[in-house]
Amino acid sequence: MGVGVSVGLTGVGGGSFLTPFLILVLRVHPGVAVATSLVFTLITRAVGSVQHLRQGTVDLKVVGQLAVGSLPAAVGSWLVLTHVARAGGSDEVRSRLIQICLLIAAAVLTYRFFVPLLPGQGTNHPVKLALLGVLIGAMVALSSVGSGSVAVAGLIGLTSLPVARVVGTDMVHALILAAVAAPLALLQTPFDFHLAALLIAGSLPGVVIGSRLSVLVPERVTRFTVAVAVWTLALKVA
User: Fold this and answer.
1) Would the pLDDT of 238 be above 60?
2) 3-class secondary structure for the chain?
3) Fewest Cβ atoms nearer than 10 Å: which of 119, 124, 189, 219?
């Protein structure tokens, strides 16, 4: 429910909060935490994507430009992790990678707090969007972090899309990326379906609560709170 409230309130939380929560609080294996978070993202983003596609708030061209970079990066990152796992020591490497991705997300959130990005100012440059996709794809495959915090900030800065289309475009791209990354993660680690079902059941009412709170809580307060929370989690993970 807490993750759902964060997603509804700020658009951030699927990976940035869920993965470290599973590791720090529930003591879940890092690999299992990432796989569970990716399946959680896949299901929740599927529901959101249907709504955004119906509303017409998705730029499929931008989705494709992001995917050109993100999908190969996700597969490449998975191959690297597979090689590391065979060599041993994958748990420590995975924990460090999760921490690095959380630190990147925290830095982006902090930057957005002090330097608010104005939507509609970008140029939709395909190479820049593909490079953004590479970063997001690698982060999501390695840690499940980045599909919300980093992607939304990047789309606001690089595209001419209004906020509603930024959210919808990110939603559909995150769905496609999770559809590739989740099965790859499941090939490496076992998966707890019961845990994922409980997380999803709790998140759905949380999203509703967070969405309603978003019109009551000042935006700068929520941005500051989320940035501090992600910094705290990043420094505690490893």
Assistant:
1) no
2) CHHHHHHHHHCCCCCCCHHHHHHHCCCCCHHHHHHHHHHHHHHHHHHHHHHHHHHCCCCHHHHHHHHHHHHHHHHHHHHHHHHHHHHCCHHHHHHHHHHHHHHHHHHHHHHHHHCCCCCCCCCCCHHHHHHHHHHHHHHHHHHCCCCCHHHHHHHHHHCCCCHHHHHHHHHHHHHHHHHHHHHHHHHHCCCCHHHHHHHHHHHHHHHHHHHHHCCCCCHHHHHHHHHHHHHHHHHHHC
3) 219
